Amino acid sequence: MSQxxxxxxxxxxxxxxxxxxxxxxxxxxxxxRLSPAExxxxxxxxxxxxxxxxxxxxxxxxxxxxVARRGLEDKIAQLNDAIDDVRQQLGSVNGxxxxxxxxxxxxxxx
Length: 110
Description:
With about 110 residues, the chain is an all-alpha fold. It contains 3 helices and no strands.
């Protein structure tokens, strides 16, 4: 038993030393391939590229809320259709086919 523990720690130590040496060599090779401009930059700094930003269109809040609401309603309808299709497919796999039940509630327009 004590001999297995010694083998473990010896292997662990050898692996650590070899891994450190291999990592050091790879790091040195990677650092030698950097251009002098990249090597002289501090580690935490990042170069900021200028990006042209186009001005945002100003839309009245009422219209943008209405457009967003309609878009969400369309996505919900698409998701409901997809769910119904999957239920039908899974039902036919299991041998039971049911008519999909849909919530037919009417949402009043604000």
